[in-house]
Amino acid sequence: MKKFSLALVLFALSFAFLLASVPLKDAGAQGRPENPGEQSAVRADGRVVAPDGVVFESHKAFIDAGRRCNTRHADDIEIEKIDRKLAANRAANGGGQGGGGTSTDGSRLYATGSITIPVYFHVVSKADGTGNIPDSWVDAQIAAMNEHFGGQDGPVYREAAANMSFRFALAGLTRTVNDTWYAAGPGSTAESQMKNALRVGTADDLNFYTNSGGGYLGWATFPSDYTSKPKMDGVVCYWASLPGSNYVPYNEGDTGTHEVGHWLGLYHTFQGGCAGSGDGVADTPAERDSTFGCPTGSLDTCRRNAGLDPYENFMDYTDDPCMYKFSLGQVDRSDSMWSTYRAGK
Ligand SMILES: [Ca+2]
Ligand SMILES: [Ca+2]
Ligand SMILES: [Ca+2]
Ligand SMILES: [Zn+2]
């Protein structure tokens, strides 16, 4: 009898070991609670719950799994091609600044806040009500973007924030209950179906979708993608990234600002790491990798490149209360992108 139970215990132990060693899709994933957006993203024990409910063992594991943003990274060949097009557009329009990121306020293409972009909002929710956010959250998201693009975000200030050329105005709001579209992730058939059914306007209209984010906080398309895939153009954000949710520290609308930054042609500040032209913006110093959480003081991960890591920039991965600025170089690049790929198109 004793021998039998020992064998049973050994068998149970080895079975448990087998289960534990089955590789999970995400490193550090720990299980799936319900409705993650109704609580803080960062839990008391330091774990972070992704928009699809997957639990990561740490803030770092969440960021390392790429859950902050799933906008694709353009490669060097594509960036070169885009930069040539920006330069040709500048030459055709009588030269001037733009794209290089060496501007001062005096030489910018468009005046601060002079372009109001119509925003077509599409709220996609589940049949059980998940993601059916109130109108007030949509208004708060637009207000947050106007504050952020106007250089007025707070409360953490290390350096002055640029006042961008763009502002946003709600032009339409649709509500759709569809469990498949709610779960739509980047590159999925569901994303394509959702956008084909809901997208309105042309290249200079912003279509802003909220759903589960497909497990990410958001993703966006670039201005240069519009010609080949006009229906896919726009940004998709997790509904709980909007101001009004409890999804701390990602509930101040900075995800929307970050994704709209991509939609206006800006890359991550850590694009290309310490080598090459990085994000194509001169006044965002190169950084080796994304920054997460809420760092303070000087970080310098690319010591051979002048300048400290721009972790306070909207195009990095830090927490919403800790990212608060675009730079003057990003004014240049987004103005140039707008002029080349979106204005009047
Ligand atoms: Ca840079
Ligand atoms: Ca540096
Ligand atoms: Ca912020
Ligand atoms: Zn991004």
What does this structure look like?
This protein is α/β, with parallel strands linked by helices. The chain folds into two domains: 20-67, no CATH class; 76-342, 3-Layer(aba) Sandwich (Collagenase (Catalytic Domain)), CATH 3.40.390.10. The chain has eight helices and seven strands; from the N terminus they run H-E-E-H-H-E-H-E-H-H-E-E-E-H-H. Strands 4-3-5-7-6 form a five-stranded mixed β-sheet. A hairpin with a 5-residue loop joins strand 1 (48-49) and strand 2. Helix 3 (76-92) packs across helix 8 (328-342). One calcium ion is lined by residues 278-279, 281, 284, 286. Residues 278-279, 281, 284, 286 line the site of one calcium ion.
Write the CATH architecture name of the largest domain.
3-Layer(aba) Sandwich
Helix/strand structural class? alpha/beta
Q: State the CATH superfamily name of the largest domain.
A: Collagenase (Catalytic Domain)
What bound compounds does this protein have? calcium ion, zinc ion
Sheet bearing the most strands, described?
5 strands, mixed
Could you name the ranges where pLDDT drops below 50 across 5 or more consecutive residues?
13-24
The tally of structural domains comes to 2
State the CATH topology of the largest domain: Collagenase (Catalytic Domain)
Secondary structure: elements and pairs:
Layout: H1 2-20, E1 48-49, E2 55-56, H2 59-64, H3 76-92, E3 115-125, H4 135-149, E4 166-177, H5 179-182, H6 189-198, E5 206-211, E6 218-220, E7 235-238, H7 254-263, H8 328-342
Parallel strand pairs: 3-4, 3-5, 5-7
Antiparallel strand pairs: 1-2, 6-7
The protein binds calcium ion (CA) (3 copies) and zinc ion.
One calcium ion binds next to loops.
